[in-house]
């Protein structure tokens, strides 16, 4: 039970920092809306809806990257991570707290972005929405681990997209498939498999990434 | 890793390297002769099918190197012995080199049999491209972190992600695309004549052995470098 309390406390800490500083979320919102506007001009008129679904996934992945690049910055700047690692809690709780906080930011950005997508481009059905939700879990779980790895490096902002993009290609396949395929459930199943496998792997390996 | 005071223990495996390299060269020569001269011409694809004897062993060796790298990474996290860090890194380095060769030979084969240098409908090629990008990022990660146990563990974690990414990506690409890559092995066993199968097995052994020798040479070189650096530091202080 205390593990869950630790996770909740860490998530609350991140959300409170964001509420006070407003560093990440407004940037993510503005970015995803600007991207959708850019896509309107990038898509020639008369393009099929399928192309728009593909671009939605590009927008989601890059918005998540924007949020993840900022995820560990407060910890790095003020040496908070050292304190958290020394704190008497399981280290994987730090990862889970950060994953949940990033997930909240990404969902908040999508609450604006998805209606905007429907308004500008094409409708989204229940399977497509389920695909977005499942892929969010995978992006945030893997992304917060990769961001912690990249944050220790010299070129952290450059490194994170390079580390993360090859890993999220399967999520894009699943998400686009759920949106456009008549057998969308198969893709949802695949997204669930990805989430399960990589969440367990990230959860188990976080400790090794942050300890000196 | 051996201490600088006993350089002999780290250099003694080096003495066997010229012999191993000679064996690899002979095996590779034999494989090339078997593949180009002895094996019968494929009835369907003709001469271009002969690249199969090089392309497929290189691809399998590349997977093997990535697997070895992940295994050494697991040992590093498990036993916390820093020598596994270098072994994992060298294995992944070899895997990436063989992965690049797979992309090049696959591209040549695609041009010969389908008339295009690249096709997204070939699952294996797409999978290799994804893996190639992933493992290039491994080197970016490694060179961006300070040398030390944290770099070793971060690299190891990334290497483990890589080996899990292989089946997941394969599944994703299967879901995304039709399956048109020429399948030589099926569930009913290899669709090859006896000589073809022998040539393939010899090529596979030769390429794997070559990768093993390259792995040993690079490892020995990197270890000598590290020993030399330690000796220099010991002399300077």
Descriptive notes:
The complex is a heterodimer of chains A (212) and B (237). Chain A has 212 residues and is mainly alpha-helical. Chain A has one domain. Chain A contains 9 helices and no strands. Chain A is globular, with a radius of gyration of 17 Å. The relative contact order of chain A is 0.14. With 237 residues, chain B is an all-alpha fold. Chain B has one domain. Chain B contains 7 helices and 2 strands. In chain B, a hairpin with a 2-residue loop joins β1 and β2. The longest helix of chain B is centred in the last third of the chain and has 43 residues. The N terminus of chain B is likely disordered. Chains A and B meet through α7, α8 and α9 of A and α5 and α6 of B.
Topology:
The complex is a heterodimer of chains A (212) and B (237).
Chain A: H1 2-21, H2 25-42, H3 49-71, H4 73-77, H5 80-86, H6 92-120, H7 126-151, H8 156-180, H9 184-210
Chain B: H1 7-11, H2 17-38, H3 52-79, H4 83-114, H5 123-144, H6 149-176, E1 185-186, E2 189-190, H7 194-236
Antiparallel strand pairs in B: 1-2
Helix pairs in contact in B: 2-7, 3-4, 3-6, 3-7, 4-5, 4-6, 4-7, 5-6
